[in-house]
Specification:
The complex is a heterodimer of chains A (about 350) and B (about 800). Helices cover about 40% and strands about 20% of the residues of chain A. With about 350 residues, chain A is of the alpha+beta class. In chain A, the strands form 2 sheets. A 7-stranded mixed β-sheet of chain A has the order 1-4-5-9-8-7-6, with helices on both faces. A two-stranded antiparallel sheet of chain A has the order 2-3. Chain A is rod-shaped, with a radius of gyration of 42 Å. The two termini of chain A are about 80 Å apart. The mean pLDDT of chain A is about 90. Helices cover about 25% and strands about 30% of the residues of chain B. Chain B has 20 helices and 40 strands. With about 800 residues, chain B is an alpha+beta fold. Classes of the chains: A alpha+beta (about 350), B alpha+beta (about 800). At the A-B interface, helix 5, strand 1, strand 2, strand 4 and helix 8 of A face helix 7, helix 10, helix 12, helix 13 and strand 27 of B.
Chain lengths: ~350, ~800
């Protein structure tokens, strides 16, 4: 009987090694482990054994059964794994194929630059205010120390809508509206669209954008102005950027300066972008003219302030190295989509 | 303002390279518009003498010249000119020379005869008669006999000079003059400024015997001065004066006219010289023109004047447009013997308005518009007379006419050095301030910290402490300003709600694949015609520019759709297969027309789409997302925009007001914009959405009891709006009905013509327990009843 059992074990082990599919495996299980299977049959023959051999044989049968069950379990697992692996292998995709998504749109590059500027100035405590694009002569000129006969009116050819109404030529009008409605300390920027009668070309547009800044408080100095503009320049152009003041003239500031930054292209060595100067002009600024302050009911003996006007369009074109300002208003999708990444900061 | 270095050097020593000079001037407030090296215009052109002249053997019109060019050997040059002769000194462009007209001369053969260069005409050297006598003669330029053979033509023509173009800001009319710029250079270079000395003698007589001046308009003409010169000896000006004028872009006319121009450029004060013969009744009246009065100006143009224009008239008629230009007959002629010099101040707005109205702009009017200094006029006249004396071209009659109508000669500003420093944030020693201000001719005396500054009349722009601070700082150097970080309370700046909401809106649209565009706020006045809007449409109430750049940019927009269509069309024509755009901008709505006050500027959103997969409902999806963002639930109704597809357009109505219209573009409009694809546009008025109070978000408990689902298949008339069906379902469903979702609309096989099949998924739920059939039964019955009423039957 022992021989029979050993013969069965080796037969069964041979058989299971050859098993390839679940059906055959199940047949194997029925054949060797089933209720009417070979092992059961041998177990039935136990009765014919002498009593003293029975426990030993019984143990042996149990051993063989355990071996069969283990073999079955292993085989079954192996086959399941093989099947799973085969399925996974068959499901392999080309990971370089494009993802399925709704392509996002992009904010206009002007507004991306503006968003960055707003962020910078907000962090320095500037409130962001708004003003009308159609302005009165008073807010656009008179209150900014540009009386009717002032030659500065020639500096910016103005579009008129009626005798006293015009398209604002500068966001500086917001200075007046702010000082009339707020008391110092004042710290605001006013972004907006402005208009001048310039023919359209690669660097001029009759419609463009400015960000006006105004700070009024006790003891404000030109060094404060420079500090704010340096921080702005560092965040926009990088922290090694240098800021330079150059004397200039604006009717509503005194002293007035043009503000240059070291050329972001060449770092100041001189290149095509800065026309060999090493500097590019980015904005006009100055200390608020005492007459402008007093016109708004702020005592220039007590308070001082600074103002600046940044050209958003020029900042945008220099920043992205856009060669022609007209691209900003043409809105070619292939142009706009280049700025999609800019939505994330 | 273009000034040659040699002119500047008459008043100030410039011992630095021109680049250094320019850098220093930029840093003291004078931008440089250009630097022109006159000598760079030509090279290797010399004065040469024709030693021998022969006929060309093979060409009748050519002559072979043996030229003495100042070297040991003669140079053979062939010329086609006929005005040359042996002994003539002429400009010869030698081998490898460059001419100002861009021509490069090399040796070659003319009809077989070697020619080592070219003889030049005045035209080839870009000369005019005023530059060199005979320059405009047809043929080779014959130089004066005293020109040394071999001299570089640049020396002959005084071209070894550099012209710098200084940009003068509007606050510095005093620097619209060579003296003003020279004074600034002297300050920047810390060197001496030499103002020309006055030196002339008079020959007696009395100006009153020659002329009488009356100023009728002292308000517009605060100062009028004049002198008389007789026994004029009119002739050419000296070379130095011709050169100075030429560098500034002016031609030499004759010594008298040149003196007026020279003095204008030198001092910034325009002058006029009248031929006394032509001053009728020996009388000059500064008066307003009479309406309809006429004048023919020096440039031979006739002008009809109005009574808001100032003229200088004689006893009969206007002989000058004050400050702008003289009449054709009033000026100096070759045979003029007696003149009256005028130097005056006319109010800048008067000159500006007159010049504008007549479409004129002259060197003179430009200076008056920026402002001239009444206090400097006596010096200017004296300077002109000194030049008369220096050039010995006339005898000066005694007596000066000076009609003054009050002007402040000098302004005194009292301030302190510490106040100036406080504004700048920089410590500048008092002595340094005093030194700088005095160099600028602002006479400054310090008493401890206190400063008393006497501002010269030519610095009308210096009015107070801030101006003094600027004067000090620009000379002291802006590099001394060191940035200090923002001081004060640490707060984050605030955004206006409208901007914050607009930003959120833009993000929402970007997420849906819409890209933001930016277009001009003014459009063509005909743009609305492309939309076929009726005459009484509110969008027709447009504000027009009085002085637009062109019709194309003449009208402030009341809608954004035409701009959007233009952008979509540009993209479509560039073969871009699909595009989704939005623009968030303003519409300009006048309160009344014609405009009397500022119009309303209201926020407007424009959306435009085209491309595969886009249809009315993708557009509506975007529109809905906007309303969802602002928690608004508008009703959608059919709309009737003439530029949209009549069957595929809708309006969104919120609180009885139409806040959006959208739909597919009408094929006729599409054709006008050059589309052959379907295009979808929307416009949403944002002011109501911005103004709506955003409700505070409060958590609602998640449902704890199961929902019951029912699918409903209905048959109804094809044109019954699903909104009507949904309304009926909601009304019937009451508060047990949690949601209604349309999942199928079908027309075609198995559905009778004119009908459609509509399928809904309904979810019912009770908040406080499990929903039973008994609960649901009456609700479903009510829904069915209501559906039947609107013509819906249940499909089996």
């Amino acid at each position: 009987m022992k021989e029979k059992l050993e013969a069965l074990r080796s037969e069964a082990m041979n058989d299971i090694a050859a098993v390839q599919d679940e059906q055959t495996l199940d047949a194997w299980r029925v054949k060797y482990l089933g209720k009417k299977g070979a092992l059961t049959e041998i177990l039935r023959g136990m009765g014919a054994l002498p009593a003293e051999e029975r426990p030993k044989m019984g143990q042996l049968v149990n051993e063989v059964r355990a071996a069969f069950e283990q073999a079955f379990a292993e085989k079954s697992d192996n086959m399941k794994n093989a099947a799973k692996n085969a399925r996974l292998a068959a499901e392999t995709v080309d990971v370089t194929m494009p993802g399925k998504t709704n392509k996002g749109g992009s904010l206009h590059p002007l507004n991306q630059t503006l968003a960055d500027m707003i962020d910078i100035f907000q962090s320095m405590g500037f409130d962001v205010v708004d003003g009308p694009e159609i302005e009165t002569d008073h807010y656009n000129f008179e209150a900014l120390n540009v009386p009717a006969d002032h030659p500065a009116r020639d500096m910016q050819d103005t579009f008129y809508l009626a005798d006293n109404l015009l398209l604002r030529t500068q966001t500086s009008a917001a200075q007046i509206r702010t000082m009339e409605t707020r008391k110092p300390p004042i710290r605001i920027i006013c972004p907006g669209r402005v208009y001048r009668a310039d023919e359209v070309d690669a660097t001029h547009s009759p419609v463009f954008h400015q960000v006006e800044g105004l700070v009024v408080d006790k003891g404000i100095t030109m060094c404060d102005l420079k500090g704010v503009l340096e921080q702005f320049a560092h965040e926009i152009y990088g922290k090694d950027t240098k800021v330079r003041f150059r004397p200039s003239f604006f009717p509503f500031t005194e002293p007035s300066v043009e503000v240059d930054v070291s050329c972001p292209e060449c770092g100041g060595k001189g290149c095509r972008v800065c026309k060999g100067e090493g500097w590019i002009e980015i904005l006009g600024a100055g200390m608020v003219h005492p007459r402008v302050l007093s016109g708004c009911g702020i005592d220039p003996e007590e308070y001082s302030g600074f103002a600046f006007g940044i050209g958003l369009d020029r900042l945008t074109t220099t920043r992205y190295k856009i060669s022609d300002i007209r691209l900003l208003f043409e809105n070619d999708l292939r142009f706009l989509q280049q700025f999609e990444g800019g939505n994330v900061k | 303002m273009k000034i040659s270095l040699s002119w500047l050097k008459r008043y100030v020593d410039i011992d630095v390279p021109v680049e250094t000079l320019c850098d220093k001037m930029v840093m003291s407030g004078f931008e440089i518009e250009g630097i022109e090296d006159l000598s760079a215009t030509m090279s290797n052109v010399v004065a040469a003498k024709i030693v021998k002249l022969e006929k060309h053997p093979d060409a009748d019109k050519l002559q072979i010249c043996q030229m003495d060019v100042g070297g040991d050997e003669l140079v053979q040059i062939v010329t086609g000119a006929q005005n040359v002769f042996e002994g003539a000194i002429v400009p010869a462009a030698l081998h490898d020379s460059h001419l100002p007209n861009g021509v490069h001369i090399k040796k070659g053969k003319l009809r077989g005869v070697e020619s080592n260069g070219m003889l030049c005409s005045g035209e080839e050297l870009c000369l005019k008669e005023g530059d060199y006598p005979g320059a405009e003669v047809y043929g080779i330029l014959i130089l004066k006999d005293d020109v040394k053979v071999g001299t570089d033509m640049r020396d002959v023509l005084h071209l070894n000079d550099v012209v710098v173009d200084f940009k003068i800001t509007a606050n510095r009319p005093d620097c619209q003059s060579v003296l003003g710029v020279a004074r600034e250079i002297a300050v920047a270079l810390k060197t001496e400024f030499r103002k020309p000395e006055i030196a002339y003698t008079t020959v007696g007589g009395d100006i009153a015997d020659y002329i009488k001046v009356t100023v009728d308009e002292p308000d517009i003409c605060p100062r009028y001065m004049g002198r008389v010169v007789k026994n004029l000896r009119i002739g050419p000006s000296p070379d130095w004066m011709v050169d100075c004028l030429r560098a500034a872009g002016m031609r030499s006319i004759n010594n008298i006219v040149d003196i007026t121009n020279f003095v204008m450029l030198e001092t910034g004060q325009p002058m006029h010289a009248f031929d006394l013969r032509d001053v009728k009744k020996n009388e000059i009246i500064v008066r307003r023109a009479k309406n309809g009065e006429e004048i023919v100006t020096l440039d031979d143009k006739a002008h009809t004047l109005t009574d808001n224009m100032l003229v200088i008239a004689d006893g009969e008629a206007p002989s000058c447009l004050a400050g702008i230009m003289g009449s054709a007959g009033s000026g100096i002629k070759d045979d003029t013997t007696e003149l009256f010099f005028e130097a005056a101040k006319f109010r800048r707005d008067s000159v500006r308005k007159t010049a504008r109205a007549l479409g004129m702009r002259t060197e003179s009017s430009a200076r008056f518009e920026h402002g001239v200094d009444a206090g400097s006029i006596p010096y200017v006249l004296d300077r002109a007379l000194s030049l008369i004396a220096e050039l010995d071209c006339g005898d000066i009659v005694d007596g000066t006419i000076d009609k003054v109508n009050g002007f402040t000669e000098q302004r005194v500003i009292k301030t302190t050095a510490s106040d100036i420093c406080a504004l700048l944030g920089v410590e500048i020693p008092v002595e340094k301030m005093v030194e700088i201000l005095n160099r600028l001719e602002i006479e400054t005396v310090a008493d401890g910290d206190a400063l008393t500054c006497t501002v010269p009349s030519f610095r009308d722009d210096v009015e107070g402490r801030a101006d003094l601070a600027e004067e000090v700082m620009r000379v002291y150097g802006y590099n001394h300003i060191v940035g200090t970080p923002m001081r004060g309370a640490v707060v984050r700046g605030q955004l206006l709600p409208e901007r914050r909401k607009g930003d959120a809106l833009k993000r929402r649209l970007c997420e849906q694949g819409l890209s933001e565009i930016a277009t001009y706020s003014f459009i063509s006045s005909k743009a609305l015609d492309t939309l076929g809007l009726p005459a009484d449409d509110e969008r027709r109430n447009e504000v027009h520019l009085l002085n637009p750049l062109g019709e194309e940019y003449s009208t402030m927009r009341t809608q954004l759709t035409t701009s959007m269509l233009t952008v979509l069309s540009t993209n479509f024509n560039r073969k871009i297969p699909a595009a989704r755009f939005f623009e968030l901008s303003k519409r300009f709505v006048p309160k009344a027309l014609p405009l009397t006050e500022q119009p309303d500027e209201l926020p407007l959103l424009s959306i435009g789409l085209y491309g595969e997969g886009e249809d009315f409902f993708t557009l509506k999806g975007v529109v809905e997302s906007v309303f969802d963002l602002f928690s608004a639930k508008p009703a959608y109704e059919r709309a009737a925009e003439p530029f949209l597809h009549p069957g595929r357009q809708a309006k969104a109505v919120l609180n009885g007001e139409t806040v959006a219209t959208f739909g597919e573009l009408h094929p006729d409009t599409a054709e006008q914009y050059g589309f052959d694809t379907r295009v979808y546009v929307a416009e949403i008025k944002m002011e109501a959405l911005y103004a709506a109070k955003q409700s505070v978000i409060l958590y609602k408990p998640l449902p704890r009891h199961p929902a019951v689902e029912r699918d409903l298949a209905l048959l109804c008339d094809a044109d019954l709006p699903v909104a009507t069906i949904e309304d009926a379902i909601r009304k019937g469903g009451g508060k047990l009905l949690e949601s209604v979702a349309l999942f199928d609309v079908y027309q075609g096989k198995q559905i009778e013509d004119g009908k459609k099949s509509v399928a809904y998924n309904l979810m019912f739920r009770k908040a406080d327990g499990t929903l039973t059939d008994a609960d649901l039964e009456p609700v479903l019955d009510k829904i069915f009843r209501l559906l039947e009423k609107i013509g819906c039957t249940l499909r089996a």
